[in-house]
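Before surveying the methods themselves, let us examine one representative protein, pairing a chain with its fold in token form.
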Amino acid sequence: MARILAIDYGTKRTGIAVTDPLQIIASGLDTVPTEGVIDFLKKYFETEAVEKIIVGEPLHADGNPMEITKKVYDFVEKLKKLFPQIPVQLQDERFTSKTANRLILESGAKKKKRQDKALIDKVSAAVILQEYMEANVW
């Protein structure tokens, strides 16, 4: 089996998470500057088989799009053109940052680590991927 990769797209930083090859466990992979995310993905796809890309869809609690949502949709279209062999799917990402913050806190991380925005983005991507897996893979 190939991995599933999830992306928590941001204007400055983008969190990336992947499953293991058996698609059992979702883990944060990295946080990269958003302007470098395409290059990061190209390099990653050269060494790892990826079956699907899941991109977090930013929505308000009431389900309406956020200000960044249009940029995410444009990013998804770019992914589809650059990597036509890999399906791209949106996953509701409401509350993933809060969940990521809670998970980091529960892990016993020190205050400085809990404030690391790159860590939050990576964990948020893992939460998006885990939620996708729970809703679709099993």
Observations:
- The mean pLDDT is 86.
- The longest helix spans residues 117-137.
- The radius of gyration is 14 Å.
- DSSP finds five helices and five strands in the chain.
